[in-house]
Amino acid sequence: MNFTMSDYSSEFRRTILEQANTAVDPITFEILSHRLHQIANEMGTTLERVGGTVNTTQQKDYMAALYRSNGEVLSAGNTLGWHVATAGFAVKRIIERFENEGGIYPDDIFLLNDPYLAAIHQSDVYMISPIHYRDRLVGWSATFVHVMDIGAMSPGGNSPGAREVCHEGLRIPGVKLVERGVLRKDMFDAFINMTRQPVMVGLDLKCEIAANNVAKARLQAMCEQYGTELVEAVSSQMIGISETTLRKRIAEIPDGRWTDTGMIESAGETWKIRLTLRKKADQLTFDFTGTDNQARMGINLPYHGTFGACFASVLFTLSYDLLKNHGAFRVIEVIAPEGTVVNVKYPGPVSMNTTSAGAIVKYLSNSVLMQMLATSEKWKKEVMALNAGGRTARHAGLNQHGRFYVSGLGSENSVGGTGARSYRDGIDSGGSRMTSPNVEWVERNFPLLYLHRRHVKDGGGPGKYRGGVGAESAFTVHNCPEEKIKVVAMGVAGLRNSGQGIFGGYPGAPGILVHYEDAKFGDFLANKRWIRDVSDLGIQGKLLPYCEIELKKNDVLYMRTENGGGYGDPLEREPEVVAKDVKEGLVSQEAARDAYGVVVGDERYGVDLVATQRLRMELRKNGRG
Amino acid sequence: MNHPLRENLEVYADGSRRWTRCTNCQHILCSAEEDWKQACKRTLSPPTKAGPLMKDLVGHFVLEQMYCPSCGALMNSELVEEQKG
């Protein structure tokens, strides 16, 4: 989605006009600030068009942004917010490393994926490019894509068996991949040669080079047309306006302190992440004191990843209508004790962190911000319940075309249900900004057969406004030369990974990943029977912790995404709306009765109003005394 | 200064004292500095109260709910770890 002037609040427009008297005229400011925003968006489009893997071309697992010459965030496109912050750290690390040794020259492009410097985990490969105009450094562009392999223990880069970062693949603190406009083929080949999928990884690296080249060409054209001084003045003003407006908004909210705790569980181990948000005047402090020590497996976040998650939460709650830039950096402080799950100490492993501790930190930072917004008359309408992240998996093996592949079932968990809001239901299969590829495309490229992909009945947390239902999928291997593939189970393991409700709303159903071994799926097909539900298999599945398994012929893998939490008391939901949910297969008659106190008839899904009134009175009396 | 705290709860100023009270019935739960949850009526239910798909949580988590002790307005629903023994 692109921004237009109408997207900006009247408050923001007023601020622009107020500041315009002392700086750039408002019309020029509008034109140039939008143009900078569009450059970042065009970088994202370039990544999609040139990239190779499903992550980049379909799932939007990428980031593209512009930075000022000192590394401050200038303009983030509509891409993954937390990487906007971490890539800012990456730009600064490149400046520190190369300005005195090796040099930073026009048309250089640097590669960095070291999570102990700036990346979140090695699979997220940053490409960073200085932008010069007439030999003067005027800014930086940066991208990341999640490459499909990084030469780690497990195919796909997310390694449950890794016990230190050195088990998790290539870790590059910064190299020049392009030197004064010339691709360093030796470095390029060395990089892709250490992965299991050199062609696809090569395409992903080249899409990043292309996107950075687009940024360079567009920013240089702006400097040519308007002059560097004007572009610089607009850049300063963009950040100033975002910071000023954000500070004003925070100051209007009552001071206070809000807390929440998230949990990850795998094979008998539990890790808790605790967060306290303190708000004083116009400053926010996210304090993770009390979080458990770092894990022996790769769910740990580096500090900048934790910072980035808090930054993104502020961007998308209090600043959703503002220009996304360094302004939000200046109003937050993040305290994350070293040696914990949220600030890993070397050589702790990190490869699974984005979908585990990362998902929980994003959930918690949003949760405490929602509690804060609820204390403001002006902002309470923006409050929504959340979801915490669910399960996901990688799969790899020989495909039906005889080629080794690595890909992700992350596509399936991109369609989780979103939390309910203060005025409407959550979005069914709303997901995040990432998307899910279509089933036919997956089956054409990988040796998989879908049994189904559909909405989860009773997934959404009940409430006055219902949480969005997520999706459930089941697969088996099919047309598979080796009759088996590898599956790496990751995400937020455990059963408290779905959306907690808010203000009385109930939690959504948890996301799960279940392996049905030797399900005799072939026998069902031979008898011309289809599996409508995994319960038809007649065997008990195994809930998967963090692990690597073989999915063999006749096995079935079931994945249920996270589901959104509800908002408010479910007994206050309009009975007719509950009946509509039942009719559409989103809520069962059983849940309509037990959670909502609504009696829905069997045939036309009509509401029995008398029985409903009686039942609700009974539930209130029995449940609440 | 009065301000909302969450659905059905607000901070209410009475002279120099500040209280947390139910917006549904104006019942005062506690002073604004205290934990309002301690003043609520609390129930623990099986997680399946939130729907049949919560069955995997039985034995691990319970649904803790907080109500206004005066009018029964629902304030909070949360999955909490089940206390064993």
**Averaged pLDDT of chain B:** 93
Lateral arrangement of strands in the main beta sheet of chain B: 1-2-3-4
User: By helix and strand content of chain B, what is the structural category?
Assistant: mainly beta
- Percent of residues in helices of chain A comes to 25-40%
* Biggest sheet record of chain B: 4 strands, antiparallel
Average of the residue pLDDT scores of chain A: 92
Distance between the termini of chain A: 49 Å
Helix content of chain B: under 10%
User: Would you report the number of β strands of chain B?
Assistant: 7
- Tell me about the largest β-sheet of chain A: 7 strands, antiparallel
Identify the biggest protein-protein contact and residues per side.
Answer: A-B, 40 and 32 residues
Please, what is the oligomeric state? Answer: heterodimer
Explain what the structure shows.
The complex is a heterodimer of chains A (625) and B (85). Chain A is of the alpha+beta class. Chain A folds into 3 domains: 24-245, no CATH class; 388-571, no CATH class; 574-624, no CATH class. Chain A is built from 15 helices and 20 strands. Chain A has helices spanning 10-20, 26-50, 54-57, 81-98, 185-193, 198-226, 228-252, 303-317, 357-373, 410-413, 439-445, 521-526, 575-583, 589-594, 609-624, and strands spanning 62-67, 73-76, 109-112, 124-133, 136-146, 175-179, 182-183, 256-266, 269-280, 283-287, 332-335, 391-398, 404-408, 448-455, 471-477, 484-491, 512-516, 542-543, 547-552, 556-560. Chain A starts with 9 loop residues before the first helix and ends with a helix. With 85 residues, chain B is mainly β. Chain B has one domain (3-81). Chain B contains no helices and 7 strands. Chain B has strands spanning 3-6, 9-14, 17-22, 28-31, 41-45, 61-67, 74-81. At the A-B interface, helix 14 and helix 15 of A face strand 1, strand 5, strand 6 and strand 7 of B.
